[in-house]
Amino acid sequence: FYCPDGIQQIPCAPGNYTNTYEQSKCRQCPPGHYNIKPSSTNCSRAQPGHYAPVNNNISRPCPPGTYTNKPAQQSCKTCRPGTYSTQPGTQNCIRCQLGHFCPDPTKLPQPCPAGFYGDIYEQTKCKICPKGYYTIYPRVTYCTKCPIGNSCADPATTPKPCPVGFYNGLFAQTTCRQCKSGWTTNVPGQAECTMEFSLGGSDDGSGVVILLEVLSNLVNNPTIIFDRVHLIVLFTGAEELGLKGAQAFISNHTWKTSIRRFINLDSTGGNGKAILFRAKPSQLVVDYGRVPRPHANVFGDEILQYLGANTDYTQFATKGSLPGYDFAFYLDGYNYHTLLDRPSIVELGALQHLGENTLALSHEILFGRVDLQQPYNISDDDNLIYFDILGRHLVTYKMSTSIIVQAILTGLILFSMINNETIQNNFSDISTNSTSTQMMIETHSQLSNKDDMESMLVHIDTSIKSVPKHPVQFTSENLRTHLEPIILKMIAWEYSYLFQQPINHVSLVILDYPKIIKHAMDMSTIHNKLLRGEYKNPLEFCDDIWLMFNNAQLYNKNTTLINKMCTKLAELFVEYIDPVMQTLGYCCGRQYEYLPQVMLCDGQQQQYCQIELNDNYYYYNNLDPSRLNLSYDKYIFCVKCFNSIKNDSIFVGDDPTQTLVEIPKSLFLSAKNDIKKPEQMIDCIICTRRWHQVCGLHLNEIWSEGFICKTCIHEYNIKRKENPYIASKLPINDLSSRLEQRVNNFLRNKNCQTGHVTIRILSASDKICEIKPQLKKYYSNQLVNNYPYRNKTIFAFQEIDNVDIVFFGMYVQEYDEHCPEPNKRRIYITYFDTVHFFQPKIYRTDIYHEILIGYLDYVKQHGYMYAHMWACPASKDFDYIFHRHPSEQHILKPKRLQDWCKKMLDKAIVERIVINYKDIVQDCLDNQVQTVLDIPYFDHDFWPFMIEDNIEKLNQEEEDRRKQHVEGEQSMIDEEKISDKSEYPVTKDNMNYAVVIVGGISIFATVYWIVSARHWFVGPKRTTKNSFQLSPTFITTSGTTKISPSPNAIHSQL
Fold it and tell me: Which GO terms describe its molecular function (predicted)?
């Protein structure tokens, strides 16, 4: 209110406020703030996605095309070009995706039409395809080169084959060229013209003659048993009419699947020795070196890349994926396809040379002297460097060898010139062309396994720029072939009927369905999209399947039948889709999400309230982390702690012992702990396939050049840069060396041929355990200020499939001889945690025990006397070290975990490392502990927090009793009885009763009653009140072991 004339108070109008008494006028809400009610004492700030104009009494959502990503804004920002927001109240604009353009920031992205492409994000218009390139599909990121024999005048239509009488021997052409006089093309789509009525002496009379002579020789050879091997001599027709003969055989003939090698004989002239133009895979070139007069040169393969030729060899090698040879005459090429190509121009010596080599190569194959196992992928096999010496010997060596030699020579030149230059090798795709005759050889040998095939491949060490970029494309037929069986299996499942048709929310009387589910999806819609060819890659299909599952789980509660059916159907989908996706070159078809984790409340730092999954909470976004004692980005309060603070402000800080910062409660935002973060997807820089980052095991910090999927690494034989950040390269010290040696010796003694175990100390730092304020106040003159200790982090890794897998982690605190009592010479295992990936499985427990025992042995030798260990498993949805253990990993119950610890300590006793162990309560009873000051006080242990909590309860109860004192004499008597601070003896028999007595030692009794079921205490026997009796074989050492901020410790004599 405000009082302008001193007569009456007038309520402040909306948009104004007063927050103090005796005001003569109201204050206007600052920019970005508002209130909607009169008589307001404060203003609310506009939330992100909203704005509050000056002199306005309401917060308005940002209209489409604008956004605000900060609170308290008086206006919205316009989306930058190439981004958009279609809904009001947007906090961030969405960038326009590849293959789309966004001219209007208020509308959804528009797909690039046919003839256009979008290869970058945030485009306001699409780019037209360059001349000679085309695309008939929308939403593409690149255009395709017009193929040889075609013209592409219109970039939005399919290439047009050159008509008869015209040709085109180059890629990316907009027009075809007319054949010169006397020359023609027999069919449309030709790369070159031929002279009419050529006699074909060399092409392909020479090939027919050679095949007939080779066939005659082989048939009459008594050493060849054709019941065991088969020989096919194929004379293909209509090669000049579009390779129709070869196409017919490789597409339809039943023999095509039995072929293991083929030999193609061709000719572009009639003189000279026939050269080996091409051979895939590279092993065939090595096999060719066994013929008597080899003639080959790698330049032939390189030259054919630019000729634009397309022959029967291409049909068998590319479409049939068959390994084979391509031989051809090449001298006197001016006779090729002319009237001069008569049989008389063919040299008999040329026929003799090719015939002998063909016959010799056939013998090698038929007699099984070469490896007939088909390679994994012959089309992208690594090339060899090869050439013949005087037609007598064939020299071959790997491309990697050539690169090394060239690198050495280049280095010498650069060194001599004192000049730095970069040499880059560019590899091109291989395309071929010519007429041919084939001979294919078939055998009944079994195919080699994958490992055998991989051993045949030649690995090259190459840079990313050297690797060809081949964006993968899928035809509608290919996707339907692979994906339709999956959708049909899902439809056939007996409980899939609820997912087969679109949801009719009107007939089902679920009128809120469209409000909750923004993008409905069902199996019939997915199937129809697949049949219509709307999916461009299998990931789009998977996205729609998971959209259907997510919709069902979002709208239906976990306990409903629909939700359970959805879960089961999703499991079936994963089972069906993963093998198919891996066949298509992807990692999997799953939807990976990072589930929300339990959070800790900042309200009661000594209690650490937990914010469980799906709990509501409040948080403050700290926009200025530079403030003193306020360095975190976010501060979180559970609902209970937030509502328990009755003031309008909350005091927050990193360290409660320092000055806290006052934060208005109005700046806190409400949220729910249910956010699931999807696993990041990354694109392969070669084929553009999308993989889960976790499936590809890729980090940009290691491979900054980009992600290359395993499919491309195998297909192109790429040798990636080695990962320098592996466990074995981390710094090693005496402790890690001893633990690692102990574990690996154990495995060797068990004859385990598994991956090496690496153990490293990931951190070691000096820290201070501060005494908490309530205990310090309660025993003001009897406590030290702090306990210094050394904090260490120990992790164990095992190499599995050439990858370091972490399977064990442990945090320890080491209080040495310089630390005051009672922490002196103690170690405390604050946490240890495992994941069940160690191999072999039967030795997992033994390996965990070996690490722990090895650590106890190490600290024993360094003068420690006692060890404390936490023996309580983590609660549900709460993890110690490894977040979200595998669902199939069994978590031990408290009793089982205690037995597990006993078994480990029993082993340590046998090895004379530990003398004995006992429950911590039993040890306190045995040693007649009288005060909490005699109990070890460890950093972040449950015990210090419980002491603080009990002292607060004690003070509160004493305060309540003082208030009751004035009510009567009986209350005073009761007060005296309860507040008597005489030492109360604690025994097993009266431990529960001691919880009720809250005075003096009762604090100790209360806490120990809570921890008695979980705390282990292992240590030396005490014979008198102030002396210890140690075994003469042991150094007086002590260690402290625990696993989480809870009341458990193990005290062990080492």
Answer: chromatin DNA binding; histone acetyltransferase activity; transcription coactivator activity
